[in-house]
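Hey team,

Filing this mostly as a record. A colleague (T.K.) asked me to run one chain through the structure pipeline before their review meeting, and I want the input and output archived in the tracker in case anyone asks later how it was produced. No errors, nothing strange. Just documentation.

Input sequence:
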Amino acid sequence: MDTITIEGIEVWANHGVMAHEADLGQRYIIDVAIHLDLRQAVASDDLADTVDYGALSALVVHAFGAPRTRLVEAVAGRLADEVLDHDERIAAVDLVVHKPSAPLTVPVRDVTIRLHREREA
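Output structure:
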């Protein structure tokens, strides 16, 4: 299986448990890796034989933004489903959602949610 990875997609969204997260929103950073067979694209050199990662990144931004969820886990799961639904050639997706400004009581550099989802047979 081959992989296309897009790292560092930035999204401003209002997800979170705390009231100020819903009111003010915050920056999230999303990494997405899709797993698919790229042999046809390698042979043809034709965009139609692969997944357009420009369109995929736009989908990620749109799908992550709304509707609001309390848990980042919930929006990440919804996003994984949207990516798999985007193109039947995508066999699996790995997502990392970074929440660098998570409201914690101790200093941290980042909080991440990592999901792996495979297309159901």
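Quick notes for T.K.: The mean pLDDT is 93. The helical segments are 19-24, 39-44, 53-65, 72-86.
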